[in-house]
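idk why but the lab printer keeps eating my pages so im just putting this in chat instead. protein + adenosine-5'-triphosphate:
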Amino acid sequence: MINRNHVVALQTIVAREFRRVRRIWIQTIVPPAITMTLYFIIFGNLIGKRIGEMDGFTYMQFIAPGLIMMSIISNSYGNVVSSFFGSRFGKYVEEMLVSPMPNYIMLIGYMAGGLIRGVTVGILVALIALFFTDLRLEHPWIMLSIVALTSMVFSLAGFVNAIYAKNFDGISIIPTFVLTPLTYLGGVFYSISLLPEFWQTVSRANPILYMVNAFRYGILGVSDIQIQTAYIIIIAFVIGLFIFNLHLLRRGVGLRP
Amino acid sequence: MNALSLHGLSKVYDNGVEALKGIDLQVEQGDFFALLGPNGAGKTTAIGIVTSLINKTAGSVEIFGHDLDRETEKAKSCIGLVPQEVNFNQFEKVFEILTNQAGFYGLPLKLASKRAESHLRDLQLWDKRDEIARNLSGGMKRRLMIARALVHRPPLLILDEPTAGVDIEIRRSMWEFMRKINSEGTTIILTTHYLEEAESLCRNIAIIDAGTIIEHDRMSRLLRRLSMETFVLDVERALPEVVSIDGYVTRRVDSHTLEVDKPQDRNVNEIFELLSKKGIRAGSMRNKASRLEELFMNMVDNKMTERQ
Ligand SMILES: Nc1ncnc2c1ncn2[C@@H]1O[C@H](COP(=O)(O)OP(=O)(O)OP(=O)(O)O)[C@@H](O)[C@H]1O
Ligand SMILES: [Mg+2]
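predcted complex ->
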């Protein structure tokens, strides 16, 4: 089913996304580095010292995986939503629509773009974290696979957002009103075992909780949730969002009047 | 073999506008074809459906015998499109725009770069290859889009008003270029408001108005018909069943009405003389305005206002 033409088309999109991230690195790479450095200094260092231990780790060590994950989530999402919306807004999405490349190739291409930016920023934030504390790597394969899967989920979610967005406001509403709150409540800064029973249950409805905890498990070896559950939920999101996007592309929602 | 074949193509936009009302159209391989029509006639809509940029409401599209719905990839790879409005990434470099487009069609970078070079040279854009596309002039942007449409060597090139807003000199050179690639075998379909443009380039023509194809003919025949005036004669005595006058096309509308087509180089008096020889006397005569003529008058008017 996949032939050489498709592979070339995919390479073309990925290369173009890569160039885009590189070209506007001041917007794509620098801001998360600055924000995260501030988080490490303020929460990890200054406030963290007074908080003491969390799950048997210094507060800095505890939040480092959460902050890395937070950067991966917002940058994967942000890359796809702004790049694909930009191509709709500037009409150059038509270059792809007229071409014989199948929809799934286009989708995988943008997803790869989200992965590239998400992982690049993730590595950068991890390096920054190492200035402040040391991180072990308890389960490297879990860590890597969770990063990749989470980045896919949010790349695909960004694609949905880009399809439905009518203007530039439309690409910042979801990150501001949905993504950021869910991330903050997803156990980046605390272990949900600190919460009352009721709020623990509510927290478990937040998919980001599973991603952050699975990732933290990969690095520190501790988690508030079952790792298998995390995989099931994350993979279900990847598959569900992928299929939903294919459906939107086939119908031409937001692309073909 | 038809390069393009449309059957019962119709389009109703979400806002209820019926842009195409079931059109049929055939364009032969190797043809240079004009799709002419006033603003809002449905030209861009038809092209949009053929190039997968617009969803059709009903009907079918075949490109070199490949059904667009069933053999999508084959059908799509036969077409190159020069759209009416700029649709490349204004922040990309000229050269990259071409190699990306080639890549979407599956051309490996090495081949794509070679093609990009040759097309940019052909269209006098090679000097601009490293320029950010936004910095090109309007005419250059249009030529860039032509180069981009050709990068995968499509057998069918569709241009939606390629010369709108382009100065005379560049327009002439674009015409030359289109003639050249047509003579090398590429089928070309172009839409235009300018009869003059269609006349100088195209062999066949379809005229579309309000979502309907109202004419589809050889260019030469259409021009001959356009230069024809039709007169409607009310005759005093009942006409015979068959009326013919040498050198004129006539139509018997009813027993007392006769239509006569008059080429521009003939004289009305001659018609009267020939008729009276046959014992037919006309009581009154009027000029019949044809829909086609009206349309052209409108388009000519548009052109005048555009030029002012
Ligand atoms: N996306 C759209 N949504 C709703 N109506 C549309 C849309 N695009 C075009 N139309 C309408 O469909 C009709 C045909 O438009 P179209 O663009 O096909 O005309 P055209 O022949 O290309 O005109 P022009 O010479 O001005 O480019 C017009 O009435 C137009 O307003
Ligand atoms: Mg148009």
